[in-house]
Amino acid sequence: MARSTDFRLTSEVFVVPHEDMLILYAPLKGVVARANHATATLLRDLQAGVPFDVGDDDLDVLRSLERVGVVNGGPDLELTVHEFGAFAPTHVTLFLTDACNLRCLYCYARGGDNPRPVVIPTDAARAGIDLVAANARANGADAFSVGFHGAGEPTVAWNALTSLVEYAQGKAEELGLRVACSTCTNGVMPAEHARWLAQNTHTATVSVDGLPEHHDRQRPRAGGGGSFEDVRRTLRVFDDSGFFYAIRATITDQNVHTMAEMVEFFDREFRAGDLQFDPLIPAGRCAETGCRGPSDETYIREYVRAYEVARRRNRMVGFSCLSFTSLKTFYCCAVSDGFTVTHDGHVTACFEACGPDRPYADLFIYGRYNPESRAFDFELERLRRLQRRHIHNLPYCRDCFCKYMCSGDCPMHSLKLGYGMERGVRCAITQALARHRLATLVREYRPDAARCREVQ
Known about the structure:
With 456 residues, the chain is an alpha/beta fold.
């Protein structure tokens, strides 16, 4: 008879309850399986290291887990921990301006409110491109990337955007590298600008808050009136050009009940590659407008409804804390190697800390462009403190089956809601949606231990 000492767990494994089932989940082996209480007990006893005889039924389970590496397998996938690496980013995000042509009700940066809008200093922007290009060359990479984002709408600073894209392309050619340029935009721009982006950049993320009436209410133009028809025109240009873009929607208590309809609408009207629906965390202009996010319970219910509609249409709708295919130890660039040059020449790890007057800027801003040396002055110890926020250092996350999906959630959101940096704020949402997705996997694929791909 086999003994338990013949077997050892070689992967982190969780038994996750959901409704009428137990789900075995080994994230770093890509394993999802239906389990029962006997299997859960077997795994608990095996992990405890107490010797026991293994019966025939348990032996079948263990042999199945052996085949996929959960038992007696090789080491787990090793995920990057930036705390121990050199600072050598190969991506820079440039905040081109704090000017904006919209007045979104929830804008964290209050884009457009500055009566004297600022455009990023050309030398600072070029220095950022030079730095990541040089890092790519020195590290033996074949490419670097440049993103355009900002406290305002990057396409408003059109001359800066086009000249910097051309500069990045020239730098790539000079060094024998490739460059990928991407833009986060509200989509309100002349058609000729949309065509230029489609022809000269690689991807875009466009903010669209759903059905026209909700989008127009939440994302009005600076001079009043809705902005949806302007966005529709831009997306038509992108579609006609075969340009890849994603749609990101901010979900409030006003549009949350239309999430499933939003999926149908976007899929019918546009050719967006990805859809992401994230609940609003109040900040910035919300204080004046009263714009609020949905309750966790409402968002979960409506997301599941939207997810099922998306699956029927062979689409995926994303949530920023939930990924089965991009597992990681850190949530975002703010606690990894985030290198963002702001419109006033500061360097920040977090998009929301986009100036020294912003909340928690003292935690996230770690440098500034020096026009005299024509280089950046960094306080890298400040960045190192941020990089220590990963799941191996977050006791709250240690036993959570979602920890490689959300990696502690957004640090800025945690700070704003009074939790400090030690935990996330959307755990209930993340866990509920993850359970639903895992249950979908085991219901639609064979229920024994097996590697399962994400259901699209």
